[in-house]
Amino acid sequence: MQSPNTVAKQTAAGVVSEAKTWVWEEFGEAMEKDCRTVSGKFWQTVRRLRRGKQLSANTVYSGGGELLASTRDIVGRWKEYFEDLLNPTDTPSVEEPEAEDSEVDSFITQAELTEVVQQLLGGKDSASGLGDRGGDPSKKGDRRVCSNYRGITLLSLPGKVYSRVLERRVRPLVKPQIQEEQCGFRPSRGTLDQLYTLHRLLEGSWEFAQPVHMCFVDLEKAFNRVPHGILWEVLWEYGVCGPLLRAVRSLYNRSRSLVRIASCKSDLFPVHVGLQQGCPLSPVLFIVFMHRISRHSQGLEGVQFGDHRIPSLIFADDVVLLAPSRLDLQYALGRFAAECEAAGMRVSTSKSEAMVLDRKKVACTLQVGGEVLPQVEEFKYLGVMFTSEGRMDREIERWIGAAAAVMRSMYRSVVEKKELSRKVKLSIYQSIYVPTLTYGHELWVMTEKDKIPDTSRRN
């Protein structure tokens, strides 16, 4: 005869098992519905499954290196960090242009609002907070260090609608002036354009024994360092003026933010520099700002590829400077760093790296502000590893391993779950596993030796 404790444990275990089954069945039905309607919720769930369990940092380091544990102390530290970051004392001074009156800009129409709202509702859900700061952790570094996070501004739906309307007005004015080297935040362009260009350039240079000197430039906290005064000057220079310029400036005039963790909020603090990450208008403002820096710093250097001279490749703030020799590359880097400094930006000497494609070992000593940049034999650019020998075989092996790891991580949470329909599983497979395996496959030159094995059967 079983003891009362044993019976109670078995009963509790049965209740828990039934509850889990019910939850998974509900989850499966919801996923099936979202999959049929191509709902944004389906892709949000897919992204959560792909990331896996995210460990939250319950402690952070203070500015002096002390470990903080209480929620109030942590919120205070985050406020201190963002307040210092977004209110630097060394911002270049500039005379802001007057946003003169103009009859060019029309009123916002009902049809325009309807189209923008439908576009936003068809994508990501908006956050309810206005001016709150969120944190998106970097893939590298200690999660308890504030500088390893990227701040994200949470906007209300009305704020996003207004910003999107302004973006649709600004982009047509600046689009014809943006150089071909910039592929970030531009319709019909993406990382593949830059990856393919760099790959073909290196492949052709290796074939004809032409050395290519490269500098992969990293800008410190690029979005958070854009000075507002210089940005208004740049927009005016690119044809954004009158009521439209005033409307853009209104998003940043007397701007204030706060940090929120759970229900605990910090005091408000002013924001004098930086673009609002998460705002629909910010990407086009940033590429215009970067284009002015790139345009002012360009010289006669660059790598000749057919009839084209390619001095740089730019994807948002990911910059690759290219030159046929170390001296030419140093000249280009010096001008670029100087223009960045004049615009309130800063080149990271610890994260920027030099690399040389050549049939023999060649030193490439580059300096920024008296500091020597490290030289490497390989560099991961936009998610793809490029080497000084121009080889891609290790890159293929790396993606096969990454795809196998994705399949292993999803096996118990997706593959084995009977509550998820075959259609849902295939949708998740196509949206997570296949892109992981085939990212950058357009660059691969396959041989029989390099044939990709059936990694989907690994577990």
From TrEMBL:
Species assigned in the record: Hemibagrus guttatus
PANTHER family listed in its UniProt record: REVERSE TRANSCRIPTASE DOMAIN-CONTAINING PROTEIN, THAP-TYPE DOMAIN-CONTAINING PROTEIN
Pfam family, one: RVT_1
PROSITE patterns associated with the record: RT_POL
Residues covered by the Reverse transcriptase domain: 118-386
Annotated stretches, region: Disordered: 124-144
Protein name per UniProt: Reverse transcriptase domain-containing protein
Bias (Basic and acidic residues) ranges: 133-144
